[in-house]
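In these records, each integer encodes one residue's backbone shape. Here is one protein:

___
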Amino acid sequence: MRLSRFYIPTLKEDPSDAEVVSHKLLMRAGMIRKVTSGIYNYLPLGLKSLNKVANIVREEMNRAYALEVLMPMVQPGDLWQETGRWDFYGSELLRVKDRHGRDYCLGPTHEEVVTDLVRGEVKSYKQLPINLYQIQTKFRDEIRPRFGLMRGREFVMKDAYSFDKDEAGAEESYRLMFEAYKKIFSRIGLRFRPVQADSGAIGGDFSHEFHVLADTGEDTIAVCLNEKCEYAANLEKAKVNAPADDSASKAECPAIEEIATPGTHTVEEVCAFLEISADKLVKTLLFNVDGEPVAALVRGDREINDVKLRNLMGGNEIDLASEDEVKEWTGAPVGFAGPVGLKVKRIFADHELCASTDWVAGANKGDTHIKHLSLGRDCKIENFADLRVITESDPCPDCGGKIEFTKGIEVGHVFKLGEKYSKAMDATFLDENGKSKPMIMGCYGIGVSRIMASAIEQNNDESGAIFPPAIAPFELCLISLGGKDLAVGEKAEELYGQLMEMGIDVAYDDRKERPGVKFADADLIGYPMQLVLGGKGLKNGIVEAKNRKTGEKIELPLEGFAEAFTAWRAEIWQSWGLTL
């Protein structure tokens, strides 16, 4: 493509509303433009990169026996009401009414639509398994859209849905998708990690997220450093094993005693006042889970994991209790809640609390705490379970090795849905014995537009983006520095034609711009390979070749160019862990 005929509105300065590097560089490189909050136009360069990502995804999905379809973005509300998600999904679901007053929504995901499609067509076990996927625009009405394509309201996604006759088949479908995802991210050239994850609003009983590793990632991942162990999980899901010995919790403990703690509302204030460490204190947190008051206990130096609490209860919505609810349930101001005498029927405790006794806790009375608390003696705990956030000092829950936290960007998620949607929507089939059974489902999502942004988050420098060659808008930029030198222009045209004949996706910068402008734009956009031809090079029979990733420059001969370029190109791809 001749850049003199291409639309590349690059910017010299970062946009004022751009916060993360991918947002800044995608805007500056002329790849996207903001329409409104969380919604963007894809300009020619951005769309080329997006389509390359989509094509890799499509090829690997097809290889894994998934079949491409296209479902509507606008979905009827009655399908969502069948599963109960019309009300549960909340304000992120953009609801609209047509002229007849019927409810519709803009689809953030397609479980209901695809289940409705399959239940109307598949009647026998002989028609299973089936896996349907699409690459389509989604809409999620984020409360605070930010970070450009990283967390927009409108986004491009690949979503696939598998239907099987039994659990064994569902396991195989899940395995095929899991392996396909690894191939997709490997082919793109990104450093990534699959991690155990919570299923969230999609539902289901088992899932993995795929994270692109980047220091700027929003998510924190707990990873085992033992090379023989593959454990990795996001913080919502990361397990903390129960203490091996709980005998200390059964030890003798003096009777409870109230102590005045005036003005001490926080763990730090209580510990300083009583001259104790935070691991001697029980922190009582109050929640509203689907309208029901619940208390959760953790050690004073730990953080509660509300996702684990919600899952333990089988709940949907979980919120911290309001100040008024705290006063109603405890009879005290915020900061003095405790498990003894609490006006809450359901109390859960983190199983780490089984490792000791003689605790300090709130007394449900203003400016007052209790000491010598024995949970087994003094409280009615419904369940001791894993309820806290893992720390780097905790051992790996699988092998006992050391845990390390790293940052990641979620770009893919695979779920085992089980019978959640098929039962709700009566998606059944007749098995070998003529018995009606619900289909076993899975769903598998990839953020196509988010991959483009995450590639930049992982690969950039002070000059701009550095795209992996597999998804760069152009794999190569040929820069002509001929100016008025007709011989340079003619040779550059010859090289351009030769590269096109070789099947190279090349951007030919034939613009009448200063060399500095061309160099700056090439680095900003992040073409993985650059070829520069000037008068001096032509005279010496060479063209300068630059590896954008390393900055390394070499000279390729104009005589025998095709062979030399092919070898250099292979080296560039290999540096990304890719093969041609």
The chain has a mean pLDDT of 95.
